[in-house]
Amino acid sequence: MPRLPRRSLAAPAFVLLASSCASTSDKVESAPPEPPLKPCGTEVVRRGDGYDGAARECIWQAYKDREPAVFTTTRYTIEGDPITYRLEVTLTGVVVVVNSKDRYAQQGTFRHTCRNLERIAQDGTENRFGFALSACAGGGADRFAVP
Predict the structure, then answer these.
(1) Which residue has the higher pLDDT, 18 or 47?
(2) For residue 71, what are the CA distances in angstroms to 29, 36, 39, 54, 61?
(3) Which pLDDT does position 28 carry in this prediction?
(4) Is the CB of residue 84 less than 8 Å from the CB of residue 98?
(5) How far is residue 29's CA from residue 26's CA, in Å, rounded to a whole number?
(6) Which residue spans within 29-143 are E strands per DSSP?
């Protein structure tokens, strides 16, 4: 009895698979892309030195105008441990990423998404300000301050 050649199902399956991946004229709706963040600046504060009022004013104004922007501040504890706060003003609020290397407190990176940002005076100074954030989600706090 002669042997019939075995036909592979791989070729027809490949054709079906390829045809199902063909592009169609249906467009998938997606959210509009986020505009780029305007850089407001970066400050590094050690023992009170390094405060950048212009960078802080920039992020504050961006928040009031709902203009996407970013500001980063790194503060050092008395023991010399850095805590970095990255504030990103978005179209819907403020994202704050805190990177703490404070050996006497909780360490790690924490991301907060907040609706409200307020300007607050820093202790013992007349012309320096920090920020209070509220209505926050993620990161484990509903309210917190960025010195």
Answers:
(1) 47
(2) 32, 13, 7, 11, 12
(3) 52
(4) yes
(5) 10
(6) 38-45, 69-76, 82-89, 94-100, 108-121, 129-137
Where would I find the H helices in the chain? 10-20, 53-65
Closest alpha carbon to 132 in 140, 124, 141: 141
Find the length of the chain.
147
Residue 7 CA, chain-centre distance (Å), reads 55
Which residues contact residue 141 at a Cβ distance below 8 angstroms, ignoring those fewer than 6 apart? Answer: 112
103 Cα distance to chain centroid: 24
> Residue-wise over 80-93: b if at least 16 C-beta within 10 A, else e?
eeebbbbbbbbeeb
Please tell me whether residue 55 adopts helix, strand or coil conformation.
helix
Q: Write out pLDDT tens, residues 11-38.
A: 443 333 334 444 444 455 665 667 799 9
Cα dihedral across residues 39, 68, 50, 142: positive or negative: negative
